[in-house]
Design goal:
Shape: elongated
Structural class: alpha+beta
CATH architecture of the largest domain: 2-Layer Sandwich
Number of domains: 4
Mean pLDDT: 85
CATH superfamily of the largest domain: Ribonuclease H-like superfamily/Ribonuclease H
Radius of gyration: 34 Å
Strand content: 15-25%
CATH topology of the largest domain: Nucleotidyltransferase, domain 5
Helix content: 25-40%
Strand order of the largest sheet: 6-9-10-11-8-7
Low-confidence stretches: 416-440
Number of strands: 11
Length: 440
């Protein structure tokens, strides 16, 4: 009765020593209760158990029993099968959500976490000291500030080429307002995402972005120009203020959204069998609704700061179009993007000589020529040689992919297939997609 039972916990060993002191009259029941943090009646029950069974009477009777809440072996085997197969690479939280949503298996994320650790398919992130940044309070109204960014990533896990996802997220609510896949991060990609945002919500008050050349003229010694990028001019026409962040941490909401998208969106597209930008574009509206229901929060002020677009779609396309000025020659010709064009008119040729016209370049590749509020008819007649385009770290991959695609075609491939493999060549030799307007 005096020997200590093997396998006792430290707490049980301490309790055994105290009960012995009580039995030997060296310690009163009240003092023992205070020392062990239990009531006097429980001390008396422990004394009776020790006298009947010795130290073994103080060992918990729950030891060795299976918890009634434990996942059954059949259910656990099914969960392991899903985690090793369809949901391989999913984190505990996302895996628990998908098991409940798709497989109708409702288990906690901690249960999933323990199973993943036991079968060695998940490990927690290393804990490291992080820089502490002061958290900025959210804006009060939906549409006051939209954080925008482009995330270049292997979104299709090798099923398609690496591309860029343009992300628009509201600062006040954390809701995604627009997503757009594009081969590279370009002004045209942001304009397309902006169009979707304006159609769905209206024009916001301000955009918050990084200092990429799309949003800011970074040349310190620029001797000409108005100091604005093409995207600045588009947002200015829509009366949207463009704000550039000093650091990535300053626009942390969209940066964190990119990380979450690189986890959740990728896995959702894998489950849906999506393997191209065209398929992904059709899936994005559904994903945005799920994201906003899961992560969106209510703003402090329920008023919407967006300004609804009340014009036509043609007027919106004109506001989003890239514009440039050109002077007509005596022959009513002008040059743009390496191609010579001629204005077609039945009268007033003399009045148009030397006139300044505005070219509207639309996102679909079309072009319009405007002069004093009216559209002029035109036609291309000569293509000029163009220098090689300049690439940066965000566009070089798409350029090399097009070169690889062209090189992989057989030498006997039809010319139209070879031109499709190199988009720049097709754009240089083809007529504009938007038809010319009627004669003034």
């Amino acid at each position: 009765m005096g020997e200590v039972v093997l396998g006792m916990s430290e707490r049980e060993r301490e309790r055994t020593y105290v009960i012995r002191q009580v039995v030997q009259k060296k310690l009163r029941h009240v003092a023992a209760a205070e020392r062990m943090g239990i009531c006097v009646r429980h001390v008396k029950r422990l004394v009776r158990a020790w006298k009947a069974q010795g130290d073994a009477g103080l060992v918990s009777k729950q030891r060795g029993r299976v918890s009634p809440l434990r996942t059954k072996s059949e259910a656990r085997a099914e969960i392991e099968l899903h985690l090793r197969g369809r949901y391989e690479g999913f984190g505990p939280t996302l895996a628990a959500e998908k098991l409940a949503e798709i497989e109708k298996i409702v288990v906690s994320r901690e249960t999933i976490r323990k199973i993943q650790i036991e079968i060695n398919i998940w490990s927690p992130k290393r804990r490291r000291a992080k820089r502490v940044f002061q958290v900025r309070q959210r804006r009060s109204r939906f549409g006051e500030l939209i954080q925008i960014d482009g995330s270049q990533h292997d979104w299709f896990e090798g099923r398609a080429a690496i591309c860029t996802l343009i992300v628009f997220i509201d600062d006040a609510t954390g809701r995604l307002t627009a997503l757009h896949f594009s081969p590279t991060e370009t002004t045209r990609a942001y304009v397309e995402a902006l169009k979707r945002h304006v159609i769905a919500h209206g024009a916001p008050l301000a955009f918050y972005s990084d200092r990429h050349g799309i949003f800011r003229v970074n040349a310190k010694d620029a001797a000409s120009g108005d100091g604005k990028t093409e995207f600045n001019r588009v947002t200015e026409r829509l009366q949207i203020v463009q704000i550039c962040a000093h650091s990535p941490q300053a626009k942390g909401r969209v940066e964190r959204a990119n990380q979450t998208l690189q986890d959740r969106l990728i896995k959702d597209m894998r489950l849906e069998g999506i393997s191209s930008i065209a398929q992904a574009e059709g899936f994005l509206p559904k994903f945005i609704r799920k994201w906003n229901a899961r992560f969106g929060v209510a703003p402090r002020d329920s008023a919407d700061a967006h300004r609804p677009w009340r014009g036509t779609m043609d007027a919106l396309d004109a506001a989003l179009a890239r514009r440039e000025k050109r002077l007509l020659s005596k022959g009513l010709t002008f040059r743009s993007d390496g191609t010579m064009y001629c204005v077609k008119t039945r009268g007033l040729r003399t009045a148009l000589c030397g006139a300044q016209v505005t070219l509207y370049h639309f996102a679909n590749g079309g072009m319009e020529v405007h002069y004093k509020g009216r559209k002029l008819a035109w036609e291309p007649y000569k293509t000029m040689p163009r220098p090689a385009p300049v690439e940066d770290e965000k566009t070089i991959n798409a350029r090399v992919d097009s070169i690889v695609a062209k090189a992989s075609l057989p030498a006997t491939a039809p010319p139209q297939e070879r031109s499709r493999a190199w988009p720049n060549a097709a754009r240089r030799t083809s007529a504009p997609a938007r038809p010319a307007s009627a004669h003034p």
